[in-house]
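Researcher: Sequence recovery benchmark, item below. Answer with residues only.
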């Protein structure tokens, strides 16, 4: 299961869910088909709203994203730290000195860590949560403190970066709100589909209808934001 759905994936999973629902219940009684048509419409509206929010956010952040590392030394340091932690975790696993999951700290690998300040802040928060959940990481306490310090420096630098950064952050904040709304819609409809399939004695077909359930987790792709299917 793909536990993390990034912004770009909403435009794949949403339409796929709509298509799958239509196919799964095409032979159902009329009341069920009428209800599922309503669900498809709801998901379609959520997909459109999310697409519009992403377009607006890309425009707001375009001036900043290309040169952010040159403008913010703290961003350079944060990304270097995250890369070092990822290598540290991989090395400890290879040496059988740690049996934890790197995906807890880097759900989509370092390839999934963006270069913009908001992306890096999100990645640092994910790493901090990882250290809180897994206390067995060698040198974990020391690394957690370094992550917290890097986050503090990056936030301080972002606050003083000027109007361009503030404008980009505004766009991303709006997008984040739309993303949460999309996740609620997608998750809610997925649960309803689960119930309908269960009533029809087809509960085992759920993964063939709800897209993220059929995708292995931990894929290494660019993530626009930390978006958890269960819990946001």
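Model:
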């Amino acid at each position: 299961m793909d536990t993390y759905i990034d912004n770009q994936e909403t435009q794949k999973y949403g339409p796929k869910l709509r298509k799958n629902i239509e196919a799964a219940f095409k032979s159902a009684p009329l009341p069920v088909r009428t209800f599922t048509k309503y669900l498809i419409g709801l998901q379609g509206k959520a997909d459109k709203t999310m697409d519009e929010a992403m377009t607006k956010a890309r425009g707001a952040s375009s001036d900043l994203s290309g040169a952010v590392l040159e403008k913010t030394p703290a961003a350079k340091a944060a990304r270097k730290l995250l890369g070092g932690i990822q290598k540290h975790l991989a090395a400890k696993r290879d040496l059988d000195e740690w049996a934890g999951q790197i995906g807890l700290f880097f759900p989509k690998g370092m390839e999934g860590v963006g270069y913009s300040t908001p992306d890096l802040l999100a990645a640092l928060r994910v790493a901090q949560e990882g250290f809180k959940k897994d206390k067995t990481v060698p040198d974990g306490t020391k690394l957690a403190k370094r992550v917290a310090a890097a986050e503090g420096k990056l936030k301080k630098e972002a606050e003083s970066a000027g109007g361009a950064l503030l404008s980009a952050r505004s766009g991303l904040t709006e997008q984040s709100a739309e993303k949460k709304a999309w996740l609620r819609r997608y998750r809610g409809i997925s649960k309803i589909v689960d119930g309908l399939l269960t009533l029809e004695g087809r509960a085992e077909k759920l993964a063939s209808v709800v897209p993220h359930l059929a995708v292995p987790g931990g894929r290494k792709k660019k993530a626009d934001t930390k978006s958890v299917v269960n819990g946001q």
